[in-house]
Amino acid sequence: MTEKLHNLEIYLKLVDTIGNTIEEARLRAVRAVNNELVQANWEIGKYIVEYEQHGNEKAEYGSSLLTNLSKDLKTRFGKGFSKSNVYLMRQFYMKYPKFQLVTGKLTWTHYSELLGVSNDNARSFYEKQVANENWSVRELKRQISSSLFERIALSKDKKGVLQLSEQGLMVEEPKDIIKDPYVLEFLQIREEQRMSESKLEQKIIDNLQTFLLELGKGFSFVGRQYRITLANDHYYVDLVFYHRILKCFVLIDLKTRHVKHQDIGQMNMYLNYFKTEESIEDDNSPIGIVLGADKNDILVEYAIGGISNNIFISKYQLYLPDKKVLENKVKELIDE
Known about the structure:
Layout: H1 2-53, H2 56-61, H3 65-77, H4 83-95, H5 108-114, H6 120-133, H7 137-145, H8 148-153, H9 158-167, E1 182-183, H10 197-206, H11 208-215, E2 219-230, E3 233-243, E4 248-258, H12 261-278, E5 287-294, H13 297-304, E6 310-317, H14 323-335
Parallel strand pairs: 1-6, 4-5, 5-6
Antiparallel strand pairs: 2-3, 3-4
Helix pairs in contact: 1-4, 3-4, 6-9, 9-14
């Protein structure tokens, strides 16, 4: 009986090994096909641009070049050559004139989304973030629509904005993980809808995967309503995460109103407790985020003055930001 179990175990390991080999081979095949598709579309874009630059476009087809190309390519090769797709191929070459600038970590669908971002700095940022954080196309769409680049850029100086576009977001210190505002449109809560803090928390838990995407790279969920007991009194931290890069706990307290100085004092107490009771030897000091419907910057400045803990006060909003307004603010920052 023991020998049969042993043989079965060896056999199951064989099946797992073969299965892993097949899955890795399929993944390599998908990547290879994608890389070929990306390169082919880049080359098609190059041929179109060179044709235009030699004056043939105006002489032969006029403004109908892309329409005629789409029609003839679909007739000969089938789907995948709509006018909008042919236009994207042309744009792809225009934005990436050297193929060495194209990363093999992104699919053609990723690049199709990126080409819709008109600002070069923003496009470069999103490209780096897709590669760094392995975003799906759906995640990329969400981050573009929520103006992630502009929201992070407005917390930096001109040099920081340019560095953001060249390298993506580099998480090196607590302030690098903070956004203001946090955009929670995915919760689908109407602005006029009254919402208790417990219901807001539940909505976030129900949409935890998207909330983690909004928080950014490195966050792992630890728990909700995390109990702290001091002198027989119980306190509860709304949401607790651990940040793998910064190696520390991140505590989030939710407020469906203006943030008050008492909220900051309470967060400071939570951080002191975690620093002493929860953090282990290799952990860095915990980070606290009080996330409220609104805040008064002057009050916050005075309330956190002299506090040694990492406390940040941010607002959340339940709708997508006005992208044009944010873009103009970033442009002003760069122009300065």
